[in-house]
Amino acid sequence: MPEFDLQFHHFLVRDEEPLLFHAGLKAMFPLLRDAAATLIDPTQLRHIAWSHFESDEIGGLNHWLELAPLAQPVCTLVGKLVSVDDVALRPARGMAEGDVLSTGQYRQPSISMPSPMQERLLVRRSFDVSCNTIRSRVLTGVQERPACLWRCC
Questions:
Q1: What's the CATH code, domain 2-146?
Q2: Does the predicted model carry a pTM greater than 0.85?
């Protein structure tokens, strides 16, 4: 959003069961779908997760669920019961502390964030934000491997 100098970051884990982290705003869906299509067939998405329940993270969720018939929202158990199952086209997978989501080669643990305002984060990220470069690493066991990502907006 240039008029406010805002940037939104969305992450795609390319694996046997692709995971989109942050579904984006509703209005951004066409742009995000087209960006994802440069890396995978977006109809093959299997998991859609987010760090917390706000429109810039989940606004486009139902558009993704319509596009990808096998995709499932993934969130905390509390988020599933209190919010997500009420707004999403399909029931979410509610993850408790210590649960792990396997996408194939990668394993996404449910971990607590220090802020009580945030839901649990499925993908541990270490960001290096310089020169508009975003890097994210997915922890798989004791070995850290780079995830396949795209950045938009």
A1: 3.60.15.10
A2: no
